[in-house]
Write a structure and sequence with these properties.
Number of strands: 9
Strand content: 5-15%
Number of helices: 12
Strand order of the largest sheet: 1-4-6-5
Order of helices and strands: HHHHHHHHEEEHEHHEEEEEH
Length: about 350
């Protein structure tokens, strides 16, 4: 039987609207709010029903049809708009589902983040296999975006447009993920220090950049971004050292390095490392070569670059167009100082 309204915002890649300027939006986190793990509290009504379903308190298949929602059931998760026309993503199930399936179109399991315009204009009453194939041609990040919503594009229920099987499979993975959040084990999984640093967000010793030189707003190389990276590294050198993560956005979402790789003559890690070294030589000078080193990490299935920066023993200036600037880390950001401010900053430091 046809599958559900398995739709996430930015499925089709870049939007043409003025309000959507990002060319390659990162996947959204399903179960977090503002990048933080939700408090482990007693789940509200619809969520309790989902949990009770897999504790044996309800029986399948009747348990699959959780009541329609009038408000978000999970942090970071919202229902799509009420059906007013065939533009609503749930219309397909209502039109083609069996008598036992159509009541479940509004199930919590069949709801995820959705762009209203995308839902009405591009999806309508199409079968998921049809619109997902269209989006896959336009958005190379589709599979990763769907996976972040706990929807596997290669799952048999999706491939075969089997709505009942999709609800069952997704309710199982949702339940497992929710259970991790509200019933932590006695020995929680350890997060390595670098990943924990990213998850804690930007601050005095941590900065993240989505890309090195590829501008995701205009979909082309922007060398001003390279200048910003150099300023960040110089600020760390003039302060207490720090960590720059390239391939991670401001909210801790993994972007990866593929967009930057595509702009280089040597489109791999070696080409990226060589280009980054040239940027530092250009803006900071060869004297700082020993003050930084690179690590290559896997973060949310994406390769990212970790630039570890050491405190300098003399002032480091950013030179651009014949002008020297002095940057430091203050209040969690890289800020320029005037000559007088620089003099005060350097007292007792260098």
């Amino acid at each position: 039987m046809p599958a559900s309204s398995m739709i996430v915002s930015r499925l089709d890649g870049p939007s043409a609207t003025a309000s959507d300027t990002a060319c390659s939006a990162p996947p959204l986190s399903l179960l977090t709010t503002n990048g933080q793990t939700p408090r482990r509290t007693r789940p509200a009504g619809p969520l309790r029903k989902l949990l009770s379903l897999y504790r044996g308190e309800q029986q399948l298949p009747s348990g699959l049809g959780l009541p329609p929602l009038s408000e978000p059931a999970l942090p970071g998760m919202v229902p799509d708009l009420p059906a007013k026309s065939h533009g609503d993503g749930r219309v397909f199930v209502r039109k083609h589902g069996s008598d036992t399936e159509t009541p479940y179109a509004n199930s919590i399991v069949n709801i995820t983040l959705v762009n209203a315009k995308l839902n009405k204009k591009r999806i309508g009453a199409k079968a998921p296999l049809v619109y997902l194939a269209d989006f896959a041609d336009e958005n190379s990040e589709l599979k990763h975006a769907l996976s972040s919503h706990l929807i596997e594009m290669d799952d048999a229920s999706v491939v075969q447009d089997d709505f009942t099987a999709f609800l069952k499979h997704r309710s199982e993975v949702l339940y497992a993920e929710i259970l991790k959040r509200i019933e932590p084990s006695e020995a929680p999984a350890q997060i390595d220090p670098v990943h924990e640093m990213i998850l804690e967000g930007e601050g005095q010793l941590v900065e993240s950049k989505s890309t090195l030189r590829y501008d995701m707003r205009i979909c082309e190389v922007n060398k001003k971004l390279e200048h910003v990276v150099a300023k960040t590294v110089a600020a760390f050198m003039n302060s207490d050292g720090g960590n720059l993560f390239i391939g991670v956005d401001d909210h801790g979402n993994a972007i990866g390095l593929e967009l930057d790789y595509g702009t280089l003559s040597k489109k791999d890690r070696d080409g990226f490392q060589l280009h980054l070294a040239n940027i530092f030589d250009k803006y900071l000078g060869k004297d700082v070569m020993k003050l930084w080193k690179l690590d290559w990490l896997s973060y949310d299935d994406k390769q990212i670059c970790h630039v570890q920066v050491t405190l300098a023993n003399k002032p480091v200036y950013v030179t651009s167009e014949g002008k020297e600037e002095f940057f430091v880390r203050k209040e969690g950001s890289s800020q320029p100082l005037s000559r007088a401010e620089e003099h005060e900053w350097n007292k007792g430091r260098f």
